[in-house]
Specification:
By secondary structure, the protein is mainly α. The protein has two domains: 50-194, no CATH class; 198-366, no CATH class. It is built from 13 helices and no strands. Helix 9 (256-268) runs antiparallel to helix 10 (274-287).
Length: 366
């Protein structure tokens, strides 16, 4: 009897412990489920704005040194500094686009008045075009038709041009959407300058909870990588574009503004200005005398190659991550995710590289 009575409490205690353990598991599961539900709906709410916010964070991190410097110069007026930086960025984005739109409208108006007022006359067809095999006769026929009546010419070639026109319009619409995207992102970035330190502190605390004890270090690494990429890619692209534009204007090259914009875009997406500069040099040698063409070439070639010198210096400054990792991140991110990937690629690859190095060191120490 004594043994039976003593064994019952023992079994009952084990059952209570099992019930307590099950209750804790169920409680944790319910909490995680509720938290996951809130996280899911929260992500659904911010999903339409995620890219805007992500690009705004990149711009804030890249421009924060300039904002801090300006705030000091203005006596600690942080709001005014944020407004001025935001307006400057908006002017940089909107200004070239506005110039291109105005130029395009003026060109189209000139063509329209020329066609309606019969003021637009074509020169005689060059003999080299007329003598081309297979297509020379067709070119001569269309050229003569355009010389007689541009209205009849467009009526005949219109069906062939409409598909290309549709693609051009879709491209222009995509460009307009990209400009609007950057405008919204810049405005959001302007709102993040003042609370930036608090947000960075919160990001470090969150990272410490996930990757303790080096979470804050990885946040600093991400910020340094973004700033170095902005200097090494965007900064060098602006320098190349500015130098290219100055030389094109000084040498009175036709369509200098458009060529400068194209060169700047090619530099930003890591293709380089060679696709603009090399054809321009070839045109100069075929159109100018020896001395100006030679001088133009001597000045343009260093501008075309200056990124090979400046980019490694600016992008690797202050980072322990190898330059090859940063370059692979820049190129791979741009190819995979476009302009935003130009910044996200090196950040993700640099953080992953540091994580792998830390993991290897821990294994070696163990």
């Amino acid at each position: 009897m004594t043994d039976q009575s003593s064994s019952e409490p023992s079994g009952g205690g084990s059952g209570k412990r099992e019930l307590t353990l099950d209750a804790k598991v169920i409680d944790i599961a319910i909490r995680l489920g509720v938290l996951g539900l809130f996280a899911y709906f929260s992500l659904q709410l911010i999903a339409p704005f995620f890219l805007f916010l992500l690009w705004a964070v990149v711009l804030t991190v890249a421009l924060y040194p300039a904002y801090g410097w300006l705030a000091k110069k203005l006596g600690g007026r942080k709001v005014l500094s944020a407004i001025l930086i935001t307006l400057l960025c908006l002017a940089i984005v909107i200004g070239p686009v506005a110039v291109l739109v105005i130029s395009l409208v003026e060109t189209l108006q000139g063509w329209f008045h020329g066609m309606t007022g019969e003021g637009l006359k074509l020169p005689p067809l060059p003999e080299r075009l007329a003598g081309l095999p297979v297509i020379g006769d067709r070119i001569a026929e269309l050229w003569n038709l355009a010389s007689r009546s541009l209205e009849l010419f467009f009526e005949k070639v219109g069906p062939m041009v409409v598909p290309a026109g549709g693609r051009i319009l879709s491209t222009l619409a995509s460009l307009s959407g990209s400009v609007l995207f950057f405008i919204v992102s810049i405005i959001l970035a302007g709102c993040l300058f003042v609370p930036g330190p608090k947000l960075a502190h919160g990001a470090k605390r969150f990272a410490d909870r996930i990757i303790a004890p080096r979470g804050a270090e990885f946040v600093d690494l991400a910020g340094a990588t973004i700033r170095n990429v902005s200097r090494g890619v965007i900064g060098v692209a602006v320098i190349q574009g500015l130098l290219t534009g100055i030389l094109l204007i000084v040498f009175a090259v036709p369509l200098a503004g458009l060529l400068t914009f194209v060169a700047l875009f090619l530099c930003i997406i890591q293709i380089g200005p060679a696709l603009v500069i090399v054809p321009t040099i070839i045109w100069a040698w075929s159109s100018w005398d020896l001395v100006p063409a030679l001088l133009f070439t001597v000045l343009m070639v260093p501008v075309m190659l200056v990124d090979n010198v400046l980019r490694p210096i600016l992008m690797s400054r202050g980072l322990d991550v190898p330059m090859l990792v940063i370059l692979i991140g820049v190129l791979g991110g741009t190819l995979a995710y476009g302009l935003l990937g130009l910044f996200l690629g090196p950040v993700i690859l640099a953080v992953f590289y540091e994580l792998v190095i830390a993991w290897v060191k821990v294994g070696e120490e163990g």
